Structure formats: structure tokens, C-alpha cells
Amino acid sequence: MRIEFDEDTCIGMFQCVAEWDAFEKDKSRGKAVLEDATEIEDGVFAREVPEDAELDAKFAARTCPVDAIVIYDDDGEQLIP
User: Fold this and answer.
1) Which of 2, 7, 28, 71 is 20 to 30 Å from 41 by CA-CA measure?
2) Which domain holds residue 46?
3) With a threshold of 0.90, does the pTM exceed it?
4) pLDDT digits (tens, 9 = 90+) for 38-74
């Protein structure tokens, strides 16, 4: 499973931070940050989700009020949102 996070879309509600510890608050910029992620295009970061964190990653994506987080399965199919 892979997660993508669009930092430019993020509005800093930090609901993802409450759901998965791979997200952290960057209060100086008013954005969340996805730890250990690689920037795959301008402002979009991606990383693999460990099996033991898949449920937390899904909750983080579902709670994002602006759909800045997208989850893909191992075949590249979009799961959330």
C-alpha cells in the first residue's frame, strides 16, 4: 500500500496527525508533514505504508477534510478517497 500527500492542498487541520504518527504538525507553515516521504512531483509526497500501519493510514486519509491524502493498493488502484 502506498500513500500520497498533497502538501499544497493541506489546510492544516491536522486530523491526519491524530490518526497516524507518520504525519506531524509543521505549525510554522500551517501544514502537516508526511515523515519519510519522497517528493514525487511539486508539493506531492509519497511513501510505502507498513502493513501494521495500513488501518491508521486509511483513517488519516478519510479524516482529511480537503482530500489531500490518497491511498493506493499494491496494484496502483486508488482506494481512498
Assistant:
1) 28
2) 2-80
3) yes
4) 999 999 999 999 999 999 999 999 999 999 999 999 9
